[in-house]
Amino acid sequence: MPVLRSRVRRGRGGAAATPEPEKKQQEQKKNPVEVVEPIAKRTRRRRAAAEAGLATPKTNDKEHKTRNERVGVGGAVSGAVKEEEENRDLEVAREKKGVLGEKKPMDVLDSGGKSNDKPLAGGDDDEGTAAPIPDQVQVEDSPLYKVERKLGKGGFGQVYVGRRVSAVNTNDKAGAGAVEVALKFEHRSGKGCNYGPPHEWQVYDTLGGSHGVPLVHYKGQQGDYYVMVMDMLGPSLWDVWNNNINSNLMSTEMVACIAIEAISILEKMHLRGYVHGDVKPENFLLGTPGTPDEKKLFLVDLGLATRWQDSSTGLHVEYDQKPDVFRGTVRYASVHAHLGRTGSRRDDLESLAYTLIFLLRGRLPWQGYQGENKGFVVCKKKMAITSEALCCFCPQPFKQFVEYVVNLKFDEEPNYAKCISLFDGVVGTNPDMRPLNTEGAQKLIYQVGHKRGRLTMEEDDEEPQKKVRMGMPTTQWISVYNACRPMKQRYHYNVADARLGQHIEKGNEVGLFVSSVASYQNLWAIIMDAGTNYSAQVYELSPYFLRKEWIMEHWEKNYYISAIAGANNGSSLVVMSKGTSYMQQSYKISDSFPYKWINKKWREGFYVTAMATSGSRWGVVMSRGAGFAKQVVELDFLYPSEGIHRRWDSGYRITATAATWDQAAFVLSVPKRKLTDETQETLRTSVFPSTHVKEKWAKNLYIASMCYGRTTS
Ligand SMILES: Nc1ncnc2c1ncn2[C@@H]1O[C@H](COP(=O)(O)OP(=O)(O)OP(=O)(O)O)[C@@H](O)[C@H]1O
């Protein structure tokens, strides 16, 4: 019995009817075909009441206009010529490189630091920089400071002690008039200053001085540097950990206190609408030794902070995924940050969980990877590891904290008080005796009136949380079904190479064309139906993944790629059709998911129209004239359930799927023409979903896309 996973989206029932179904019906009348499964009902789903209030998808005007302009210029006359030129370019590029598909590193905005996780070089380096750090600093109406010893350096800036030269109250230890301050220098051509003063300045304006965030007193430009004058603090948690010569480990009580105070600092930051975006041991600083603040915890480096909450509407920012954008530090980044998802409160807490485990155990299981796809490997490891394995030798509360944070949803408000209470049993009952000041957390508990005690996640009376990251990784069939008018559809699976022609010919004889193809264990699955609108079709089974010569030959004859599949043994099945709406086409083969290329082609008015994998290689076909207004990609190491649901809610539907043993990719599009019935369902099954397909047919749902690969059971 196959394992069934169903995700249902009910139709929105838009008013405008598309002409396509009518054409399909006419074609069906002209070509009566054998009905594989009788379809009795003809139903229309109504927009579910619950969805009536959902926002209509926004149109990206700029993108829309560009595409129309380009399509207009392309026209019927020049389309074929342009297409040929386009693909000659592609061919030349590929031959020059001598490989199929280039492997480009991701865009990494990695703040690096001591984690030694810095794929891109740091912006400024005093050793060798053309502009030396000034000897003295005076910005805005600040006192004059003499620049003394270096306190630290990150990927963006360098921090020095500034000693006040012009004396007013010479004994001030803190505040704007302090004798010693921290001076953060960022070179004006540094990577954080592309658009003027560092973004961090703005964030400090809002957050500076809030619980656990140092105050910035003055900021301004001096020579080649942007300079920020802030409260001077003491060693970072990384320094403390590193200086613990005996074991490199911190006491459990100390780490539990850090957990408690860090959660309360993050809670206050989140309350002001920001997420930090780079939580790690290097960015937590203690107060200056010998001062009343020496046992206080601070969080610095707001350079990657972003808003999770829109300042004008108060609403949560919109979900998005840009798989080639990474912000943060590889070692501590959340899985969602690795995958390029919009940062939200859950990400800070996940990074904090990794920070705590690092401080306790002295090492994280994904340390030590190097090379171009380090981010990919680290993310895969974070995704695969169980909380038991990650937290072995750590007391239970740390494991519970990990389990809680990795299962938070994108816009879910974390229960900070509950998280803090997890660590109650690990710290001493008298706050004054603790190795770290936990005053902020004390206040938080008091303010929310939360009863402290030995509360654990399980004992909570809330509904059990749906786990988003705890499923067992597996490989399965992923099939996608769309609502449409009754039509004939056939499927064949476990088809050996030799039998393929027979099935396709038989289908063609009764007017069916191949609408989608997939591969499993070097056998093929083909879907044929009467709803394609194609007028002619050719296919090739090749021992190579997307054989260029055959594709180009058929492009010349005005066929366009309409479906592709790749087998693990490297062979591929390419189907090309006449009668598509496409005006120009391009494809790419790549060792990693080619998001960068997709992004580039989007800007040129192309949309993904077919996608397949062969082993770990990806093949993506993009076309002009695809009939889409917008398109996005959901890429994950497991079935990206949350992302798909969010996209569905914004009017997207899955239009292409492909998966390797590691990753599943879903392309979702907003059609230009509003669909009469937007119902879409997905199934994940361990065997080909033959019985389920028949059930779907009975509900006028037809296979739109399928693939075999990575999901979660
Ligand atoms: N106010 C301060 N007082 C004392 N030391 C500080 C202060 N601010 C920063 N530092 C030290 O300087 C280091 C670098 O600072 P910061 O993290 O702000 O720079 P960055 O270039 O933005 O770093 P990253 O590469 O992590 O983004 C810190 O790790 C810390 O050791």
Automatic annotation (TrEMBL):
Superkingdom per UniProt: Eukaryota
UniProt binding sites for ATP: 184
Record-annotated Protein kinase domain positions: 145-446
GO MF: ATP binding; protein serine/threonine kinase activity
Listed Pfam families: DUF7477 (PF24289), Pkinase (PF00069)
Keywords, in A-Z order: ATP-binding, Kinase, Nucleotide-binding, Transferase
Bias kind Basic and acidic residues: ranges: 20-32, 59-70, 89-107
Basic residues bias (residue ranges): 1-12
Record-linked InterPro entries: CK1_Ser-Thr_kinase, DUF7477, Kinase-like_dom_sf, Prot_kinase_dom, Protein_kinase_ATP_BS, Ser/Thr_kinase_AS
CDD domains registered for this protein in UniProt: STKc_CK1
EC number: 2.7.11.1
Record-linked PROSITE patterns: PROTEIN_KINASE_ATP, PROTEIN_KINASE_DOM, PROTEIN_KINASE_ST
Region (Disordered): 1-133
Family: Belongs to the protein kinase superfamily. CK1 Ser/Thr protein kinase family. Casein kinase I subfamily.
Protein name, per record: non-specific serine/threonine protein kinase
Organism in which the protein naturally occurs: Populus deltoides (Eastern poplar)
